[in-house]
Amino acid sequence: MNSEVDTSILNSVNIKRFTKTVLENYGAEVDESNSAKWQVTFPRELANRLDRENGTLVFDPADRELGAGDLLVQPGTRVFSALLDLVEQPGTVGQLRLTEDELQVKPPLVLQESSLSVSVTDFSKRTSDFALAFHFQVQFETPSSFHTEEMFSVTVDPENGARLPDLTARLTAHLPQLLQQNNEHTARDISQRRVQQAFEEAQQAVIDRSRPIVSDIREEADETAGERIAEISDWYEQRRSELDSQISEQEKEIQKWKKKRRKARKDETRRRYIKNRKEAEQELEQLKGEVQEKKRELDSEESQEIDEVIERNEVDIDVSLLGVTEVTYARGTLALKIKSSHTEQNIEVSYLPATDDFQGLDCEVCSQDLTNGVLPQLCVNGHLVGDPCATTCRSCGLSYCDACERDSTFSECEICWEPVCSDCRQTCSSCNSPICADHSEVCQACGGTECRLCGEACDTCGEFHCDTHLTHCTDCDTYHCDTHTESCDHCGSTRCQAHVRQCNECGDSVCSDHGDACVTCGDTLCDTHIEYCTPCSDELEQTGRGFCGTHVVHCSVGNEALCSEHRNMKIVGSGQVCESHRKVCSSCDIAYASNELDDGWCSACRSIGETDTEKIPKNVVEEFRSVKAGRNERYMVILGKQLLGRNKLIVFDIQSDEEAHRHSAGMLKQLIGDY
Fold first, then answer.
1. 264 φ, ψ to 5°?
2. Residue 147: is it exposed, middle or buried by C-beta count within 10 angstroms (0-12/13-18/19+)?
3. Angle of helix 78-87 versus helix 12-25 axis, rounded to 10
4. Which candidate, 87, 125, 132, 413, has a CA 20 to 30 Å from the CA of 471?
5. pLDDT in tens, 653-675
6. pLDDT tens digits for range 174-191
7. Rounded Cα gap, residues 424 and 439, in angstroms
8. Please, what is the end-to-end C-alpha distance for the chain in angstroms?
9. Directed axis angle between helix 192-263 and helix 267-312, to 10°?
């Protein structure tokens, strides 16, 4: 085959790359230390055409030195034409034969993935097909980034121009082994027009596969260019702002002289300031012109730099055809043996080993191609059919196609809705529904066969039981077998063992509705032996905190059970009291148990005047004109009378030997003689 070079697309970069590739392929020695001038020792083929063994190659006429003998490489020059002559010479084309000996022969994938057993018994070659495999090197680059290189192989049928991606994949996968074998064949006689059409189709395939790569490179290049352009714009904008600030400073200078003129008292001074202002105004006009000119220069420089950035980030693509392989591949008949658990059958299909392409593997009922993803079944009478055209037992695989009479009846499993033959069908002892073996279970209590809708595993032991031998625990909302459930001795309800406990007092088994734990020690108690805090129950309108007999505390007045939040230990009186039995003395404001007060007065207030003066603290006695006191086991209440002002009632804590509080004595009570 001959190939042609389209010189219309060549630029300086492509010319250099083209020159370097040809020189290296022919063994030339190239010194590129000076990118503008290459020192080259020419290969024999090129030296004969140029009548010299070495020379200096330049790619721009401006780089040639007069009298130096430099050779210009551009379309139309002698050197470029010589390079074209070399690459346009007829080249060798590789031949490759793909037969069943080189490639692994295997049955259709759809049969391998089915439940059937399949094996290859024979392959007989009928014909040979022909294709051209084109091998390309594609280079992607931008002037400001590294090169990206990809290798593409495209196989085309020259008869119809169709791409053969499966053949390309097969060829690529087995290429190392194929290259070690001497299986070349005689070249096919094929017209130049068909070769050219196949090559153009391969080129289009390379373009299609290159588009995503180009898109990624451009996206990255655009992002880099955008960042650089933003930096350039920011820098030039800053320069323009600096120029504007010079004008602002000059305008401030004018305003300064105007202000000074208005404040000047002498005519001579005012004239000097006016002169300075006019000079500043002239300088401002001159500065504005300079700034305007400088801004135009900055705008031009900015545009030029941005254009250079955009140009540096353009993607350049170079596609090179490295070689062509003529591929001959066999087409024949593949003999297969297919087995199921009930029968076996031998079939033949048309097979293309090079692409694993099968033809003739069709359903014998509807003729649908089974390689399109339809699950194949082997009828008990040896018919290979698609799953929709057969009834197949889920359990044993017995299959009847729609064209055969059935010796076995089929039922539909109640759980999976798949067919089950009469030999494999089971019946649920609870609902009498037909079920397959995969969805049946045996109750561990009665031994009955059950479907999974009529029973489940015990949540405690995990063994399957029918619904009759399972009990629902309302506490955990799960089912448990009889071995792992207990009944409450108080209400008779059945719960799982985890939610039935024994009372620590009487030993009764109690459920959560008729038993609780002591909040102090955690012991379980039945309703008979647990006491709940009365105030908690009243506030929450439900059972409050419970206590065992050891840790319960009762109100010393009303005998109600009390928790720690509802018991008061700071009042005067025996034991602890609830809030409803806590009262305050109407005289001294000290809290007492309600049974410790008489008509609202505590014993200390009722006995004022009965305590010896010597027992009253001296500091209190010295404070008043006269004092008298009463007391009980905890407090001393002292009435101190003053000559002027209100009398005071002092409450003295006997245990701490400190004054608790004081307040004015009631005038009315003094007048009526209560004190």
1. -70, 140
2. exposed
3. 60
4. 413
5. 888 888 888 888 864 355 334 54
6. 665 565 554 555 556 778
7. 12
8. 137
9. 170
